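USER:
Try writing one entry.

ASSISTANT:
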Amino acid sequence: MRKRADWMNIAVDPVLELLNETDLALPPGVIHYNLEKKMNNAPSRASISRAIDDLETYGLIEKPDDAKTYYHITETGRNYLQGNIDTQNLEPTNTSN
């Protein structure tokens, strides 16, 4: 079972699941487009943007070195999806968003 933190909104899990399933680095617009195609009640673009900012801040996703607006899942993100970490205990790792 996943242990969600208070800062996580409704878009966090779908964003992480999409990045994990595709194993690609994707920009926010493509994430939103694919979640709309995949889900009946997809999160709004604003919710996805907030989720991306928070996920990056807490180290669950990151930008590849050569991409300014693309994101991919980290090992921490994969561990969260597997229920192996309690995100309530995560400290911000990236405060430059």
User: Anything to note?
Assistant: Residues 83 and 95 are 25 Å apart (CA to CA).
